[in-house]
Amino acid sequence: MASSRAERLRSRRAAPAGATTTPAHGDLPRWQRSLLPAMLGADHAGRGDREGVDLKRSLRDWIVDIVLFVGALGIGVGGLWTDHRTTSTPLFVLDAVLTVPAVGALWVRRRHPWAVGLIAIGAAAVSDGASGAALAAMFSAAIYCRQRRVVTLFGFSLVSAAITPALYPGHHSSYAAQNLVLGLLGTIIATVFGAFVRVRRDLVLSLRERARVLQEEQALRVSEARRSERTRIAREMHDVLAHRISLLAVHAGALEFNPDAPPEEIARAAAVIRESARAAQEELREVIGVLRTDPDEPAVVDSDPLEPPQPTLEDLAPLVEESRAAGIEVRLATALDPVVLPPTIGRTVYRVVQEGLTNVHKHAPEQVVTIAVVGGHHGGVRVSVTNQPVVGRAEEGPNPEHVGSGTGLIGLAERVALLGGTLEYGSQPGGGFRLCATLPWQSEIA
Question: Model's pTM, two decimal places?
């Protein structure tokens, strides 16, 4: 079982992105392909008009062609044998001369059904020997020709069946009537049987096309799900690690630009760096645990997928304390109704504050940050993070350079939009930056 799973994984990795597997007869064993018509394996064979399609015959096609050729030749020889005793020599010679091209043309009936039908049915109008070829040509036309041409050949064949007995006066009247009835009946049977074969093949081809479309749609759904999952993982890793790394950068920068700081401050900064690194390591391990989850493992009924522990509103105070420990002045004000806040809203509020503090650590560590979380059950929840410069305060040291990915606010906007909220952000007139999210109150989302 393990080896089969490894083979499936190797085949998935070897397949190009977006590739789909379409149901074609090339996927079948060779002996099964030999029992199917070659046209069922052609991508363009599903069209109503299949004249001019040149396909390599399968074993089944060869058998059918040989049977039709031998049958038409046998009917032709029988007709010639009967005519040589009852007709004149010139008429018999004409009969034999027309039989040869009519029967021989059957070998190209698949590629040129219309031309073969005209030749065979036209020859059968004056030749008893070509009557078998005319039936085979009518059968082929019903399969491969357009409907209008099939109707034309069918009418031409009925006229031909009525003309032939009149050209052979040596036949008895009862024999001529018998030939007329047999010709009409044979034409109808050949046409109906050919139409049945055509409908059956068109049904198979339509089912094959439907399966191909369904597989392409499934591939698109899988690709979209994979893209969505990658976006979710990237957003989660950004939310989890960006804040920790920004704290590390701030404290490391403080140690770098203040080498003469008192030992107590150095020890305190080193402790914060160690704690932040340990927390980042734990959170990274949790995210990697999600990435390592095998999607092929059978899911447990009524169980949630493995995800790292999600923060709530109760984790907002420790988050603010971490920023204060990094030397940032943070003012937190909360005014929420005394009701239980849905976890999805609490988690989103936490992420908004976390993103705002992360950007402050990166770009404005000397500014004052004001965090306000207000609202309730009726009006929704509004959270804002505003940083403003303090007048008269001199910068204690250069701000460490940070290179942002530019995707934090984009991912945060997507997270807020999933809850039906809005996210606004931008620079303030007197300096600073404001990040504000409005979240409608709603029940817990599964």
Answer: 0.46
